[in-house]
Amino acid sequence: MAVPNQVQWNPRYSVGNEILDDQHQAILAQCNALADHVVGTDPESDLKFHTLFNELTARAREHFSSEEDLLVDCACPTLEEHRNECDEFEYLVAEIVTTDNFDKLELQKFLIFWWVGHILDSAERYRACAASSPTD
After folding, report:
1. Residue 79 domain-assigned?
2. Could you read off the pLDDT of 81-101 as tens digits, one per residue?
3. What GO MF terms are annotated (predicted)?
């Protein structure tokens, strides 16, 4: 039987911005929480999974807004790339990565992989942006 993936925070995931790092950690925790509800087809487990999934997508929107604010403040050249990534995530969770198309285990694994990739990429791109931003 396949098992869900879980991931723990790793210091190399750090962007160097407390707000973004806290949000990234909370998103990973939310993905891990989904893992507790992938096995089983009882209505309560399904409801909890969907509730957590909806909370995760709401948290993602808030997080993307925080990232955009940082990028605007830093005049980061990757702002448009960031906006495209946000649009991609919105499209994926609205149209593709749904329980209509995938089972809960596949969704949970996808979300873990997507978010770890996003976090690692953010750490690489945004650390440099924050370091090069003008100081007050």
Report:
1. yes
2. 999 999 999 999 888 887 788
3. metal ion binding
Do the domain assignments include residue 3?
no
Q: How many CB atoms lie within 10 A of CB 12?
A: 9
Asked if 38 and 4 count as a contact pair (C-beta separation under 8 A), the reply is: yes
Please report whether residue 12 resides in a domain. Answer: no
pLDDT tens readout for residues 115-129: 999 999 988 888 877
Structure tokens at 83: 């906006």
- 88 within a domain of the structure (yes/no): yes
Say if residue 104's pLDDT is above 60.
yes
> Which structural domain range is residue 98 located in?
54-130
Q: Where are the alpha helices (DSSP H) in the chain?
A: 18-35, 43-73, 79-91, 104-132
